[in-house]
C-alpha cells in the first residue's frame, strides 16, 4: 500500500450533525498528518457509485445500510467507533432510539392511536425512520397496513417539520437528530409530543473501507477513544460523552430485525 496522503470521507447521515463529523475528520487528519475531504452524499448508500466502487476511505453510515451492504459485498465495511451520547437515557452505551412523534395539539397519545393515520418517514433504507417502526408493528402484532398512509420526506428534519405543520400525523425520528433539533430550535418542543420510544439500537458508526490499512484503522480508533480538547469542544456542543470501539457483530441485531420483517411480508408498510 502506498503511503496515505489523503482521507476521503462521506457522510450518509442527517445534516444537523455534519459539523460534528467535520470535527471528527479534522481531528483524524491532525493525528495522521494527512489531508482530509468530507462531503455529504446525495445518494442512498446502497446506490452510491463512490461506495460501490470503493472510492472512499471512511464513512458515517446508518447501521441498516451497513449490514445490508455487508450481506452482499465481498469486501466489507468495518465499523471503527460509534458515539456515546451524554443524556442519561443512553446509559453510557453507543445506542440510540426511535422517538415516535406527533403534533402536540393532536389527540394522539399512544402508538395504538396512530392506526389509520399518516406516517412520514425519511427513507425506506433508514433504521430509525422505517426499519424499527416495522419491528414495532411486528412486535405489537399490528397489520402492515396499520398506518393509513405513508409518505417519504427525504430526511428526519423535514419529517419533524411535516408533523409540526400538520402534513403528517406521526413520524419515527432518530433520537439523536430529534435532540439536536430541539437544541437548535427549542421552540419546536411546544409543537411535538413523543408517544412511543423504540429501542435501544446500535447507533450509526464511523466505518472504514476494506482497502484502508489495518494500522491506519487502529490509529483512528485509538485517537477517537482519546479525543483532544478541540474535538471535545465539538462533542460537548452535540451532546456526545465519548466514543466506543465497535465491530460488525455489534450491528447483527439490526440485520435480524430487517430480515425478520422481510420474511414476515413487511417489506413495505402502510399504503
Task: Give the CA-CA distance, first to last residue.
Answer: 51 Å
- Write out the strand line-up for the largest beta sheet, numbering strands in chain order: 2-1-3-10-4-11
Q: What order do the helices and strands follow?
A: EHEHEHEEEHEHEHEEHHEH
The coarse overall form would be globular
| Helix segment tally | 9
Q: Quaternary status of these chains? A: single chain
> Approximately how much beta-strand content do the residues carry?
15-25%
Major sheet details: 6 strands, mixed
**Classification by helices and strands:** alpha/beta
Protein name: PhnD/SsuA/transferrin family substrate-binding protein
Pfam family, one: Phosphonate-bd
Organism: Nostoc spongiaeforme FACHB-130
Can you walk through the features of this model?
- There is one protein chain.
- With 271 residues, the protein is α/β, with parallel strands linked by helices.
- Helix content is 34%, strand content 24%.
- A six-stranded mixed sheet has the order 2-1-3-10-4-11, covered by helices on one side. Strands 7-6-8-5-9 form a five-stranded mixed sheet, with helices on both faces.
- The longest helix has 15 residues.
- It starts with 5 loop residues before the first strand and ends in an 8-residue tail after the last helix.
- This is PhnD/SsuA/transferrin family substrate-binding protein.
Amino acid at each position: 500500500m502506498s503511503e496515505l496522503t489523503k482521507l476521503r470521507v462521506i457522510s450518509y447521515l442527517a445534516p444537523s450533525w455534519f459539523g460534528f463529523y467535520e470535527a471528527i475528520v479534522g481531528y483524524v487528519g491532525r493525528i495522521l498528518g494527512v489531508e482530509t475531504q468530507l462531503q455529504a452524499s446525495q445518494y442512498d448508500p446502497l446506490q452510491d457509485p463512490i461506495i460501490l466502487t470503493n472510492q472512499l476511505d471512511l464513512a458515517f453510515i446508518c447501521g441498516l445500510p451497513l449490514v445490508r451492504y455487508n450481506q452482499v459485498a465481498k469486501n466489507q465495511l468495518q465499523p471503527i467507533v460509534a458515539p456515546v451520547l451524554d443524556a442519561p437515557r443512553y446509559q453510557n452505551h453507543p445506542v440510540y432510539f426511535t422517538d415516535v412523534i406527533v403534533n402536540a395539539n393532536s389527540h394522539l397519545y399512544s402508538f395504538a392511536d396512530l392506526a389509520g393515520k399518516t406516517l412520514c418517514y425519511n427513507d425506506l433504507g433508514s433504521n430509525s425512520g422505517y426499519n424499527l417502526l416495522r419491528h414495532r408493528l411486528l412486535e405489537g402484532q399490528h397489520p402492515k397496513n396499520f398506518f393509513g398512509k405513508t409518505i417519504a420526506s427525504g430526511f428526519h428534519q423535514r419529517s419533524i417539520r411535516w408533523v409540526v405543520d400538520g402534513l403528517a400525523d406521526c413520524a419515527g425520528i432518530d433520537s439523536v437528530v430529534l435532540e439536536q433539533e430541539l437544541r437548535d430550535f427549542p421552540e419546536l418542543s411546544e409543537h411535538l409530543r413523543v408517544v412511543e420510544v423504540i429501542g435501544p439500537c446500535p447507533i450509526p458508526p464511523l466505518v472504514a473501507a476494506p482497502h484502508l490499512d489495518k494500522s491506519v484503522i487502529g490509529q483512528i480508533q485509538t485517537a477517537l477513544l482519546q479525543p483532544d480538547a478541540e474535538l471535545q469542544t465539538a462533542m460537548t456542543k452535540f451532546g456526545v460523552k465519548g466514543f466506543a470501539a465497535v465491530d460488525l457483530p455489534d450491528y447483527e441485531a439490526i440485520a435480524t430485525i430487517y430480515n425478520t420483517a422481510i420474511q414476515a411480508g413487511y417489506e413495505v408498510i402502510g399504503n
